[in-house]
Amino acid sequence: MKDTNILIVGVGGQGTLLASVLLGKLALEEGFDVKLAEVHGMAQRGGSVVTHVRISETEVYSPLIEEGGADVIIAFEELEAYRWISYLKKDGAIFVNTQQIKPMPVIMGTAEYPEDVVGFLKENAAKVISIDALDIATKCGSVKAVNTVLLGAVAKELPFSKESWLKQIESTVKPKFVELNKTAFEKGYQA
């Protein structure tokens, strides 16, 4: 595996931090060096949450991904994908949940939510995978499983076996939510 930079972006409460911890722990257990950096200013109030995950066969010196340096962006919401697309490498892949969570300026009428975000992403990225992770998570039993649906979708881009992912879910997620998250991961993997 070459050095891999993954940016995970979303809105507070969507499970972006759990997703980054799960991914980081998986990479560590597979023998890679990993650095995580979390930025979650107003996360509890629906604000933007960004996690940098850097994975290397050798050593990672800085936890931050520079603009244009992400191999993969996992976006839990369309506007966050739109905001962070400049961090994606020219040949990178972006996985985007088609959910739209309107920020306060849009709700108050002082700003507009961008139109056709997925179309914009397709014009500006080499590979765009859009998935209705909210619908899949809801059908699995909880809207809070959006994170593992997206991890399932991105799992094919990364060199870890499906079994390793599922084992990591078992050891990271609270026991009462393990089966739900394993199901959500499987559905994302198949999507």
Q: Can you give a write-up of this model?
A:
This protein has 191 residues and is α/β, with parallel strands linked by helices. The chain contains 8 helices and 6 strands; from the N terminus they run E-H-E-E-E-H-E-H-H-E-H-H-H-H. It has helices spanning 16-29, 78-84, 104-108, 117-124, 133-140, 146-154, 162-172, 178-190; strands at 4-11, 33-39, 48-56, 70-75, 88-97, 127-131. The chain has a 6-stranded mixed β-sheet with strand order 2-3-1-4-5-6, sandwiched between helices. Helix 5 packs across helix 8. It is globular and about 50 Å long. It starts with a strand and ends with a helix.
Total helices: the number is 8
> What's the rounded overall pLDDT mean?
93
State the end-to-end distance: 24 Å
Kindly state the percentage of residues in helix.
25-40%
Largest sheet: 6 strands, mixed
Give the helix/strand class: alpha/beta
The portion of residues forming beta strands comes to 15-25%
Helix-strand pattern, N to C? EHEEEHEHHEHHHH
List the helices and strands and how they pair.
Layout: E1 4-11, H1 16-29, E2 33-39, E3 48-56, E4 70-75, H2 78-84, E5 88-97, H3 104-108, H4 117-124, E6 127-131, H5 133-140, H6 146-154, H7 162-172, H8 178-190
Parallel strand pairs: 1-4, 4-5, 5-6
Antiparallel strand pairs: 1-3, 2-3
Helix pairs in contact: 1-7, 2-4, 5-6, 5-8, 6-8
Descriptors for this entry?
single chain, alpha/beta, 6-stranded mixed sheet, 6 strands
Task: Write a compact overview of the structure shown.
This protein is an alpha/beta fold. It is built from eight helices and six strands, in the order E-H-E-E-E-H-E-H-H-E-H-H-H-H.
